[in-house]
Amino acid sequence: MHSKQLVAACALGLALSGAAQAADETIVGYAAPSLDGAQSQIQGGFLVGAEQHGWKVLSVTSGGDAQKQVNDINDFITQNVSAIVAVPDDSAGICVGVAAAKEAGIPFYTIDRAPSGCVVDMVVLSDNYLGGQQAGEAMVAHLTSKNGSPSGTVLEITGNLAQNVAQLRGAGFQDVLNQHDGITLITRPGDWDAAKGVEIVRDVASAQPIDGIYMHSDCVYAAGTVQTLKEIDQFAPAGEDGHIFIAGIDGCSGNLELIRQGATDQTSGQPIPDFGTLVAEFMAKQFAGEAIEPGLVHQDGALWSPGRLEMTDVGMLLYLSTTSITRDNVDNPGLWGNQ
Predict the structure, then answer these.
(1) What's the domain range around 161?
(2) Residue 206 has pLDDT above 50, yes or no
(3) For the whole model, what pTM was predicted?
(4) Nearest-10 Cα torsion for 252, 304, 264, 160
């Protein structure tokens, strides 16, 4: 369902790439860092939400270049868009673009990642700290079962630590593990780069025994992690001697299949497709002059519900709960990786 909607919505955005804004229409500039991994679904969710409101969308990607993303935002401002939505390449760097948009009177929203050091109109994202906690609790439970106490060596492969999403995923996980003196944590920056993830796993797992691996993104790192462990003869499926417990965040379909196979063990699933539809819903309310107040947000049937709206130093944030996924619930049809 999502793929068909995404194709239709993307076609809409491409058709409008050179359009000028008419007085009676709403045009939104959407600045993505890439369309890799979950980013294509995040963009697709917003395009669907925008289409439901009759908005037109101009979409660009920066290829992971924070300066290009700021340039893209400046281009949107020149085109006098009605609003700008971005997934920040750099949480602090995006503030240059935010300031320019505010000066031009253009509302600014972010999805998946919050800014750092400036205020936007709203952010919709997963509770990334909670996701890290869930992964940490699963890791501690495994180490305790395996070793008789919470002890062992764990490798953490991070995202881009210039982004608050990676900072929070790391903090939630580390705060759990740091409660146990017997656990040694090895942290290596992966920068959301699958090739770096492979290199990290190969280097660390070849040099010493490890008991667990925590990935800041299973979409990016899971497949390469499992394949690399096999290549260096360090792989054993769940339940067998020598199994390395693998946890993460995201809940991509590929990793859900690895969990079913016993190759990986846990992930904290995000409600990826809902990010964009929800930000579009709240944008529409603000366009209509409706005030957005802190509190709980409910949606029937949504695994993230209730969400939590909080006013913070970077603006109003809507936190959506992550779902801890294991073999016990991996087939839940409500998980975005199963849709």
Answers:
(1) 128-269
(2) yes
(3) 0.85
(4) 70
